[in-house]
Structures are given as structure tokens and as C-alpha cells.
Amino acid sequence: MQQATLRPRGLTLLELLAVLAIVATLLGVGAPSLDKYVHEVRLLQLSRGLMAAVNLARSEAIRRNTNVSICPHTRSHSGEPACSDAYNDGWMVFVNSNRDREVDAGVDEVLQVAPAVPQGYQVTNRAGTRAASGLISYRSDGSARHNLTLQICPPDHRVAPLSVVLNIVGRARLERNWGDCTVDV
Question: In the CATH scheme, what is the code of domain 13-176?
Fold first, then answer.
């Protein structure tokens, strides 16, 4: 009977270095794609959140038969919700009886509050020249009575911006590459 010879198992240093070089190359090629994917997902999440707020405002205006508005959001010193200067701070949907930029205590009801957008992302006008700050008001018939575009710009310009586009009758849609994100606001 023949005896089998035992060979040592394991990797040599040269084989281990070759495997590490291959892994490092694959990570170097894949990491930028992963970063772009992360920005794409965040951008989609933000734009869908804004679109949901717009749809909520419109449907609640019809359901409640009153004015419902969306405005940039901040908390006042008293902790009460208040409209601010830019949608980058977040936004809120509220019943707005007198169609002003204030949440009137005891009269208006806050329906939804969204947090600030992540650092580097911006909510701008369609031209990308200034931060979006306007009040969006829906009437009891579901109309907004003006056109408006709120564009969400990613920090990485390799990803196309997404816009929430409102038409004159108040319907909203999501559009890619609807405007420019060239200016930092």
C-alpha cells in the first residue's frame, strides 16, 4: 500500500499579495459607482417626500374644503412651527385658513413636517439661481392657480437633478433634468 504525501495547505505571500491587488482594483473601480448610487437614492427619496407633501396638501384642501399650504419650515424660539426662508430647512403642510405665511394658533393645523434636506443637497428654483422659498397654497377646489417648480439638486453633479413641477390647476409631477443646478445658493 502506498502512503499519501501530505502537502502543506495555505497561501504563499506572493499569492496573498496578488489577491489583495485584485480586490483593491475592484474596490477602486466600484466605489465611485456606489457613491453615485447613494446620491441617486437620496435624491429620489427627497423628491418623493416633497411630492408626497404636495399631494397631501392638495387632497386635504379638497377633503376639508379649505385652504392648505406648504411652506419652508423652521421652529420658532417658542418651539412652535413657523414658515422660514428656504425649503432646505425642511417643509411643513398646514391648514391655512387665511392663506398667509403663518401658522395661526388655535385656527390652523399642522398636518406634516419634513426635516431639513441632507447637507450638500439644495431645493432651488428651476434655473438653480436661488433657494426655493415660496408658499404653495391649494384652494378647496384643489387648484394652486400658478405654475411652480421646486428642484432638488444633489451635491454631486454626476447625478441629474429631480424637480417637482406644479401646473396651474395644481397637479404635480416628477421630472428629471427639468432645470439647472449650476449655482450654489
Answer: 3.55.40.10
